[in-house]
Design a protein that fits this description.
By secondary structure, the chain is mostly beta strands. The chain contains no helices and six strands.
Amino acid sequence: MRATIGVRKNALVVPQRAVTELQGAYQLAVVGADNKVSIRKVKVGPRVGALWVIEDGVKEGEKVVTEGVQKVRDGAPVNPMPFQPTTSKV
């Protein structure tokens, strides 16, 4: 059970599956203007459902890799597509 203890306006959130953890450090694969990946360390905040608040390391409007995160490498070219969240029917 979770209780709301605060509200963060304009919080930057990414899908939880976009965040990888390596030896206690968290990373995101960010897609640059040249469609090449840059692996960045980020400071994570609380998780909210399937999203994770990112407190530092990425800016609003930057694109992050959400599919195939384990396969991409720093400097690798990618073909970015819009994120399509999965919907589950109840």
